[in-house]
Write a structure and sequence with these properties.
20 helices, mainly alpha, RNA-binding, three-stranded antiparallel sheet, three-stranded parallel sheet
Length: about 500
RNA sequence: GUCCCCGUCGUCUAGCCCGGUCCAGGACACCGGCCUUUCACGCCGACAACACGGGUUCAAAUCCCGUCGGGGACGCCA
């Protein structure tokens, strides 16, 4: 529950923020949201957004992942001003920092073996006592410590957490005043025995190096913050402001991950399923953040203007995705936002996305950019209202762009097969339309209605039958609009082929 | 287990700091209606929540305490 807000405290001249993913997989929606928040904060305060790849976990980091993250951000339109920097390039800095801490007495060598520590930890767990390193090596005489090191005895470097009472305090922009007792913090390792730095150290050193003023990251970093503040202090560096973002969980309140959720949590999945990048950004930004005026749709500039870290919720939010849902392949809200943009954005803009889909499906016609441009825009505008994703243009909307379209099962059964007489009627209507003087809305509608009335036919049956055979769908825009858009030649041809869809044995 | 965080409709959330205007508002989803010889859009309407228990108060979603529930952090991972 929100009790108090604190000031964002933007007092430094320049805001510098960063998104620092570790490249151990594709960009997922949780990471993307963190990136978006950082990006918005930077843009809002005319600051600098830095991309830093934390690739020091060489076991798991891959170049495919790095590329995937870059592609994902680019697709979303999240542009960075500096980087990508690579943490692995700064290992020297991290070691230097560890040496400085050692020299200044803020850190010490620890010769305890992993086995010894594991045993102590296990013992503590068994006794149900909280485990904390017992500081054995902290009490080692400095000369003795140096001697052992010179001898080549393997050791790690531990940070010497100040002893005695006292606490580390900081004010998180989202979570408010935080305090952690020093006695609850163990002397954590900052450098491995092989001389490589650990995350807590390298992350802080890099942030200092990059001049980060605001650390905006997931809430899982909240518990790390006191230890990192200790590092900043020991290094004599200014402490940045921290803002932790609530996590995104699934319906079972589990943290979302590739392992358990698969592709739906990957940014590229949305790209491949017909999402407009901005719609995804809009959905993601609303997952844990809201304006107080209930606005839900924003242009880029409006979002930047409206965004504030203070509107970020403290409660974890849930990605409302039901595996196996027949109707919604992802969070319904995400789909509705996507549909909203599809039907409301400027047609010219939408056209560029539709073009990509058509190209991919090999349905693109270069004339759609030239002499058929008007027609193309008109068709998109005509059919977009009922579409939820860009893919709908090449599935439900296929008949507008190709002669090779399937007749949807429902349309086939209900609107065609059930009425055998259409087999004879529709080709006759084709002849009638073929002779029409002009091919426009009024003329076509008049011709069809005259045809129906003249033969005393059921208009619903005929109209639905035409729709089914000509568009392959049982639903769609007003029929006459469809016919005019599809064109006389195609309509006539399609109507004449009606008999082909009836099984031969039913022929009279 | 220890430390920390969180808890308003199914979901995202407004309201909470500065108690009354909240028998709790919006959006998505769901259901019904209007529109449409289709479906969608649009419009109208319905359903639906202050985790629980104690206090404080004339009055509590809002303040205090406790309980329960959920999450995170406790590595020579990042």
């Amino acid at each position: 529950m929100r009790v108090s807000h604190c000031q964002e405290g933007v007092t430094m001249n320049e805001v510098r923020v960063r998104f620092a993913p570790s490249p151990t997989g594709y960009l997922h929606i949780g990471g993307a949201r963190t990136a978006i928040y950082n990006w918005l904060f930077a843009r809002k305060h005319k600051g600098t957004f830095i991309l830093r790849i934390e690739d020091t976990d060489t076991e798991r980091s891959t170049s495919e992942s790095i590329q995937g993250i870059l592609d994902g951000l680019e697709w979303l339109g999240i542009t960075w001003d500096e980087g990508p920097y690579f943490q692995s390039a700064n290992v020297g800095n991290h070691r230097d920092a560890a040496s400085r801490l050692l020299e200044s007495g803020h850190a010490y060598r620890c010769f305890c073996s992993k086995e010894e520590l594991d045993a102590k930890r296990e013992m503590a767990v068994r006794k149900k006592r909280p485990y904390k390193y017992d500081r054995t090596c902290r009490r080692l005489d400095p000369d003795e410590s140096a001697r052992l090191a010179a001898e080549g005895r393997p050791h790690v470097i531990r940070f010497a957490v100040p002893e005695g009472p006292g606490s580390v305090r900081f004010s998180d922009i989202v979570y408010g005043d935080m305090e952690r007792n020093l006695e609850d913090i163990e002397d954590f390792v900052i450098l491995r025995s092989d001389g490589t730095p650990l995350y807590l150290l390298s992350n802080a050193v890099d942030d200092i190096h990059d001049g980060i003023t605001h650390v905006i990251r997931g809430q899982d970093g909240l518990a790390n913050t006191p230890r990192q503040i200790l590092i900043y202090e020991a290094l004599g560096a200014p402490i940045p402001r921290f803002a932790h973002m609530p996590l995104t969980l699934d319906l079972k309140k589990q943290k979302i991950s590739k392992r358990t959720h698969g592709e739906v949590v990957a940014v590229h999945f949305y790209r491949e399923h017909g999402f407009l990048p901005w719609a995804l950004v809009n959905y993601l930004v609303l997952l844990g953040w809201h304006t107080s005026d209930d606005r839900e749709f924003f242009t880029r500039d409006e979002l930047i203007e409206a965004f504030s870290l203070e509107g970020v919720s403290r409660a974890n939010s849930i990605f409302n995705y039901q595996p196996g849902d027949k109707k919604f392949f992802t969070d319904p809200k995400a789909l509705s936002i996507n549909a909203h943009y599809i039907r409301t954005m400027p047609v010219e803009e939408l056209a560029a996305y539709v073009r990509e889909e058509l190209e991919e499906a090999e349905l693109w016609n270069a004339e759609y950019e030239t002499e058929k441009r008007e027609w193309f825009l008109h068709v998109i505008d005509l059919i977009r209202a009922r579409y939820h994703t860009l893919k709908d243009f090449i599935s439900h909307g296929r008949a507008y762009f190709s002669e090779h379209y399937a007749i949807e099962e429902k349309a086939l059964k209900k609107n065609l097969l059930r009425h055998k007489e259409l087999r004879e009627i529709l080709p006759r209507l084709a002849d009638c339309l073929d002779e029409l003087e002009s091919w426009d809305l009024v003329g076509v509608e008049q011709a069809v209605r005259d045809f129906i009335d003249g033969q005393g036919l059921d208009s619903g049956m005929v109209i639905n039958g035409i729709r089914a055979i000509v568009t392959g769908q049982s639903v769609g825009p007003g029929l006459f609009d469809c016919l005019v858009a599809i064109g006389r030649e195609q309509v006539v041809t399609r109507l004449r082929k009606t008999p082909l869809i009836y099984p031969p044995e039913t022929s009279a």
